[in-house]
Amino acid sequence: MRVLAIGAHPDDIENFCAGTLFLYKQMGAEVFIAIATQGDIGSPTGTREEIARIRQGEAQAACDLLGASLIWMGFDDEMLFNTRETRLAFIDAIRQARPDVMLVLSEDDYHPDHRTAGLIGRDARIPANVPLIETSTPSCAIPTTFVMDTYLGKNFIPEAYVDVSTVIAQRREMLDKHVSQVAWMESVYGADMHRDADVTSSYRGLQCGVEY
Fold first, then answer.
1. Please, how many CA atoms are within 13 Å of residue 2, restricted to the half-sphere of its CB?
2. For the whole model, what pTM was predicted?
3. Rounded Cα distance, 106 and 94, in Å
């Protein structure tokens, strides 16, 4: 089995579906993480190029921990739009992964990049199967697609739950790799990313009768 998760920013997967990916990995699946933007404004210091390099390095470290392959699209943070260029990039990312299962962001999320990435990801799954839409990678089968939960569960009603209690420590360790973003969220918004991710997982656990 091959599994692809598409995030808008380098830390999205860790917040919204890393536990599920660890379970897939334990089942023997080949896992891919595609990141649409570079996260190149997510720091109070440094140039956009320097920040992008840091964020990509952190994303790679997180993927290495999971044993996943990273697909880096390189669009500008906060400027992700549904254009021909982005649609082709998403189609090509899907074709590179050739997933049986794909996880995408919610189109009702609070963040515009998340909403755009979710929309393009879901819309790109069928064109990825069309040979006459040409990218650098040949066409692939249409993946079964699921929508991830949102930050703190905002505007999201689950239709299915995944018990990630046995891999919650690995999910936390994976989020730890995003040192710069954890610091940025705390300094600018007063947000504790670890607490917020745990609260969401615990709340969903209460809804379905498991710990996380």
1. 13
2. 0.95
3. 17
CB-hemisphere CA count at 13 Å for 198?
11
Q: Which residue type is seen at 173?
A: E
Per-residue model confidence (pLDDT) at position 95: 98
Q: For 25-41, give one letter per residue: b (16+ CB within 10 A) or e.
A: beeebbbbbbbbbbbbb
| Structure confidence at residue 116 (pLDDT) | 98
Average pLDDT rounded to a whole number, residues 153-170: 97
SS3 31: strand
Q: Which helix (H) or strand (E) holds 40?
A: none
Q: Residue 183 has which token pair?
A: 């610091």
Q: What's the pLDDT score for residue 43? A: 79
Task: State which H helix or E strand residue 198 sits in.
Answer: helix 193-208
CB atoms within 10 A of CB 83: 12
What is the end-to-end Cα distance of the chain in Å, rounded? 24
Q: Which residues of 188-210 are buried (b: 16+ CB within 10 A; e: fewer)?
A: eeeeebbeebbebbeebbeeeeb
